[in-house]
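Self-study notes.
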Amino acid sequence: MMNLLRSHLTIANVMVYVFLLVANTLGGAYAFYGLDAEAFGLLTQFGLLYVVGYWLLNDSQKRNFKLPYCPGLILSIAWPILLPYYLFKTRGGKAFLTILIFAGAYILTTALGAVIAAIFIGPQFD
């Protein structure tokens, strides 16, 4: 079981989930307080694009999948189409599990930020 986990746990996977944990926890705390952090949102979008792009390059090399000529540009423009296509092309039906895990991590880390803000900082409306 541990060998199976180690074979799927790469530095790129860890980077994606650590980024989600940090960025969405802070984003959830900002949302809880109704703060509009435009610079934080911009950095989060660029950071997510970077870590997902790094994961895509790492995973495509591991699976011997040839990416388009300029994957960064295509990823930044068409990631909602490119990533599911890539996942279904390389994993088949298991792509649903990968998408579900990523969506769950995204939602849970955002909720975690709101919960942490509510517990440690207090209620928004005093």
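Second protein, same conventions, sequence then structure:
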Amino acid sequence: MQWPRPRVARTPPNTSAMRNAVTPPRPALLLLSIGAAAILLGLYLVSGSGVSVALVPAATGESIRVAAPGSTSTPRSLPPAVASPTPTPSPTPLPGIASPTPAGTPYGGPPGEIAFVSDRDGVDQIYLISSEVGGFETRLTFTDTNDSRPNWSPDGEWIAFMSSGQGLPDIHVMRANGTERRQLTDDPGYDEFPFWSPDGEWIIFDSNRSGRYQLYRIRPDGTDLERIRDSENEDAIGAYSPDGSRIAFESRSGTDEYQIYVMDADGSNALQLTHTQARNVRPAWSPDGRRIAFISARDGSPELYVMNADGTAQQRVTSGFGTIGSPSWSTDGTLILFNSDRTGLLELNAKSLDGVHLHQFTINDSNDFNGVWRPAP
């Protein structure tokens, strides 16, 4: 686009002035034109080396001033160069594995902490790991004997666990940071799998002190020990429902395989939920109390299953994970934590019910197991 020419009023030529003016000879005009063109062409070629030339339309009668290289005018200083950050390539998601979550975001909902057991220091000890990307891991118990089966109090301030410090395991409690350790039971039997009631008033556990495994409960201060129900079966591994009204547990008669049952919190109205020739064990309630996760070997190897709280709609969640144990629901109900030996050693994994999201929380030259999510505040 050409700039419009300004309108200029015409006046009659002053012939005398024209006669008196000094008119350069034609060869001189030609040389001036060639010189100007050469200067502009040189500047244009130099511009490829970082010199920019801007041509601004000038008013009639004004010349366009161009600063040539080597002029004595003071150049404007440029801002200091800043290196452009190299973009970090995004990880390629693996099939069936969720894309990495940004650091600081806990998997499974807040507070994003998991108590678990590891034999990395020679004996089973209890540790705490963050479920967020780039989170922490810390050791809570420091004994020469096995500490295992941690379970959180409903407020997340205490941990009940079993310890074999005196030979056969007994039930203990400690603060969430590993302090104020207390022993609750002391008998020649095998006391195991403690589980807090939702109101924090009781801890249930199973024991063979009577000659067969039965479910008992005790106060967190070690008082009021009592058996929950007197059964001819072997009852073990109880878990309170989130509202505290029922207890899910595993039970068997004689040499039969263990099956999943539920009963009222006082031990009445026991109802069998699973009916297979294979073992069905380790019941774990979902946070809303509508479903129960468990481990079953009905398809040949132990796998993670989920069913409704009344025993209906039993469905398989995992496949090909090797030996699986200790299911625990995340606080937001989206993931189920379990330990698996698919890598050759037991490691903590979590999987969503739809099978899309899979997370592995521990990768060590040791066995990491019995993981349980800390309750939401």
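Instructor comment on the second fold: Residues 1-34, 36-102 have pLDDT under 50 and may be disordered.
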